[in-house]
Design a protein that fits this description.
The chain is built from 3 helices and 5 strands. It is an alpha/beta fold and about 120 residues long. It has a single domain, classed as eRF1 domain 2 (Nucleotidyltransferase, domain 5). Strand 4, helix 2 and strand 5 form a beta-alpha-beta unit. The longest helix has 19 residues. The chain is globular, with a radius of gyration of 14 Å.
């Protein structure tokens, strides 16, 4: 079983899957509202695609990070539409712009601490 570090911004999310073999990266991109469409519906489509992608990954522990409110909106979306998935969220944090390596390091540190305190 792997751990997921999810970086989410308004326009895209990056999913880093941490496992003993290494790290893999997946992106889910938000195309933005099309002319005449409700931006809220497009945002929900983005969150739906992200939730679907997360369901296909072999992980039951997620750490969600990012600047702004997108991570909070996504967590709220999960609670409303996929409540069974919220059990996988181990934590979230507001972080400013970070490189991929910084995101991976922050996530690995989070899970190391989480495992020490949970005894796993």
């Amino acid at each position: 079983m792997s751990s997921l570090v999810i970086w989410i911004e308004k326009q895209e999310s990056k999913i880093f899957q941490l496992n003993p073999e290494g790290v893999s990266k997946t992106k889910v991109t938000y195309e933005g509202p099309h002319h005449g469409q409700d931006p809220k519906l497009d945002e929900e489509k983005f969150y739906s695609e992200l939730a679907h992608k997360l369901q296909t990954m072999n992980s039951n522990e997620w750490f969600i990070m990012g600047p702004g409110l997108a991570k909070d909106h996504f967590i709220h979306y999960l609670a409303k539409h996929h409540s069974h998935m919220t059990d996988n969220i181990r934590g979230s944090a507001k972080k400013d712009i970070m490189t991929d390596n910084q995101i991976i390091q922050e996530g690995a540190l989070f899970f190391r601490h989480a495992h020490v305190f949970s005894g796993t």
